[in-house]
Amino acid sequence: MQQLLVRPENMKRIDSPELAKAYIDEQVAAIQAQVGDGKVLLALSGGVDSSVVAALLIKAIGDRLVAVHVNHGLLRKGEPEQVIEVFRNQMHANLIYVDATDRFLDKLAGVSDPETKRKIIGKEFIDVFAEEARKLQGIRFLAQGTIWPDILESEAGIKAHHNAGGLPADLSFELVEPVRILFKDEVRMVGKTLGLPDGMVYRQPFPGPGLGVRCVGAITRDRLEAVRESDAILREEFAAAGLQGKVWQYFTVVPDMKSTGIRDGKRTDDWMVIIRAVNSVDATSATIEEVPYPLLLKIRDRIFREVKGVNRVLYDLSSKPLATIEYE
Ligand code: XMP
Fold first, then answer.
1. CA distance 98 to 129
2. Ligand 1 pocket check for 64: Cβ under 6 Å
3. DSSP assignment string, 76-106
4. Do the beta carbons of residue 48 and residue 201 sit within 8 Å?
5. What pLDDT score was predicted for residue 1?
6. Atom of ligand 1 nearest to the CA of 208
7. Which among 170, 72, 161 has a CA at the least distance from the CA of 130?
8. For residue 141, what are the CA distances in angstroms to 13, 42, 58, 252?
9. Is 107 in the pocket of ligand 1 (CB under 6 A)?
10. With a cut of 50, which residues of the chain have pLDDT below it?
11. Best mutation site among 284, 324, 325, 328 for ligand 1, i.e. most ligand atoms within 8 A of its Cβ?
């Protein structure tokens, strides 16, 4: 049986644990009816949508869900570990973890054009996932974290629906899309009700190409590390200051550019970390968060102390437009 494809016009917004629970029960039954005793494959990024889909499927079919987590080396600090902890250790998922960091970074070496970087990351992701899928036998279903805005946007021609697409022709699956008719806030409510941690359910938007678009220009491992470490400090300090979940999106960027500095009386030639914190409703426009100065200074001090190769910290005052949220 195929899932319900269209959001009914009179469907009530899922804004309470009770409504979420009813939706979960309904979907568990629908998944069981669709899949029977079959197996389901899922690319589990650790983002809200795929995580909620994973949790729903685990509830419905247990270890007949095969979740594949591809670490492309451009994830934030602690992310792959959290996916393993939550899904393998706590929810006992059948989880395949693929550390493909070297593959991605080798392919990206020397590539500075943003769109080429995105294409390489997208293609490599499909290649890695397809290789894993081919190793597995007898899986007829593919689960996807498609949500209702994805459908609306692809209908309106705003963006090509990136899910579903891309897999080579020899890999054809019947789709299982248990959050297809939900809005993002409803997906979060369902995820919370399923017991996923807040850090996963309420996390800020994070682009598919990950830190790759924040390590501006050709990615090098050392500069990528500076992005990852400074981003972790920023997230930690925003959380400690109560800003997590209040500011739409906040991250650091390290451009491929050095400037002169001084450390221990010696001249340095090091990178700069740019802090970006913006508020938005739908990411089509954004205003900057007015981060308190003492917090900025605390973050600066930690970055100087803890992140190698950095001698300047800057705060980005640009709204969207004229700037975009990401740097490339
Ligand atoms: P921009 O930079 O265009 O970003 O103002 C708007 C929102 O989209 C996210 N973003 C991406 N998400 N793949 C994604 O999945 C991408 O290539 C990508 N580029 C930007 C960005 O983080 C922001 O939330």
1. 9
2. no
3. PTTHHHHHIIIIIIIS--EEEEEE-HHHHHH
4. yes
5. 47
6. 15
7. 170
8. 28, 9, 14, 38
9. no
10. 1
11. 325
Residue bearing tokens 């650091």: 252
String of b and e for 19-37 (b: at least 16 CB within 10 Å)?
bbeebbeebbebbeebbee
Helix or strand run (H / E) with residue 253? strand 249-253
* Three-class DSSP category at 263: strand
- Counting ligand 1 atoms within 8 A of each CB, the residue from 248, 326, 327, 328 with the most, and so the one to mutate, is 326
225: nearest Cα among 252, 199, 188: 252
Residue 11, amino acid: M
- The Cα 200–Cα 46 span in angstroms is 7
Distance CA 237, CA 241 (A): 6
Is the distance from the beta carbon of residue 114 to the nearest atom of ligand 1 less than 6 Å? no
- Of all protein residues, the one whose alpha carbon is nearest to atom 19 of ligand 1 is 207
Question: What DSSP letter does each residue of 157-208 carry, written as one string?
Answer: TSS---SSTT--TT---EEE-TTTT--HHHHHHHHHHTT--HHHHTPPP--T
Q: Say how far apart CA 112 and CA 216 lie, in whole Å.
A: 8
- How far away, in angstroms, is 326 Cα from ligand 1 center? 6
207: CA distance to ligand 1 center in Å?
A: 5
Contact (CB, 8 A) for 311 and 270: yes
pLDDT, tens digit, 9 for 90 and up, residues 181-194 = 999 999 999 999 99
Residue 78 Cα to ligand 1 midpoint, Å, equals 21
